[in-house]
Amino acid sequence: MSNPKHIVVFNAPPRSGKDEAATYFKEKLEKKGVSCAIHTFKHGLIEVASKFLGVSKEEFLHDYDDCTEAGVWCKDIPQWHVGGKYLSSREVLIHVSENVLKPTFGEGVCGKMFVESWPDAEVILVPDGGFAAEIEEVIDSSDVRLLDIVKIKRTGCTFKGDSRGYLPDLTYSSTGVLPLYLTLENNSTLQDFHTTLDAALTVLFSN
């Protein structure tokens, strides 16, 4: 069995700073000698979506996080032919999650895949939280020691076109572990956001 884990889930709309927050936390914690890793709920979903499309994982992720000269994310450009129409990579993940996996295996399926594939690290940073059922799968794992939900808000960023949303407060878990919730604002410079993240790190890792 792996060591008990401290899970930090970043919950926010696209473009609001989730990935930046996870990367910044990882850099700061590793400098203090803490074993950490970034792991996503879509990790297993990407594997399934690639097989669904009949392509390799590498082909599916090619240019996924890149941006065009016009400022459009490649993940949002329709390019995959599914059911008589073209879907973007983001839309493919939503389709496979909502219309293929969840009706068959339940609302928490990506949470189960997340737990089954998480790395052996003391702290796991998750930049794509947005479904309560997935969080419930994580919190019910006997390997979880602490769980933090960090919500990030940024003016102009919404969950429109995304199947995720801000997570509700959980009041029960079978293991007795309940999340600590923080809400951060990201409406200024990157330097100011890093200052906000430093304060959050102090709160979450004070012991």
Structure description:
With 207 residues, the protein is of the alpha/beta class. The chain has two domains: 129 residues, 3-Layer(aba) Sandwich (Rossmann fold); 65 residues, no CATH class. The protein contains seven helices and seven strands. The strands form two sheets. Strands 2-5-1-6-7 form a five-stranded parallel beta sheet, with helices on both faces. The protein has a two-stranded antiparallel ribbon with strand order 3-4. Strand 3 and strand 4 form a beta hairpin. It is globular. It starts with a strand and ends with a helix.
What is the CATH superfamily label of the largest domain?
P-loop containing nucleotide triphosphate hydrolases
Mean pLDDT: 92
Percent of residues in beta strands: 15-25%
Strand count: 7
* Alpha plus pi helix count: 7
Helix content: 25-40%
Q: Give the tally of structural domains.
A: 2
Query: Going across the major beta sheet, what is the strand order?
Result: 2-5-1-6-7
Poorly predicted spans: none
Tell me the Rg in angstroms: 17 Å
- The end-to-end span amounts to 24 Å
* CATH topology name of the largest domain: Rossmann fold
Concise overview:
This protein has 207 residues and is α/β, with parallel strands linked by helices. It has helices at 18-31, 42-53, 57-61, 89-105, 109-117, 132-139, 190-204, and strands at 5-11, 36-38, 80-82, 85-87, 123-129, 144-153, 180-185. The strands form 2 sheets. A 5-stranded parallel β-sheet has the order 2-5-1-6-7, with helices on both faces. It has a two-stranded antiparallel ribbon with strand order 3-4.
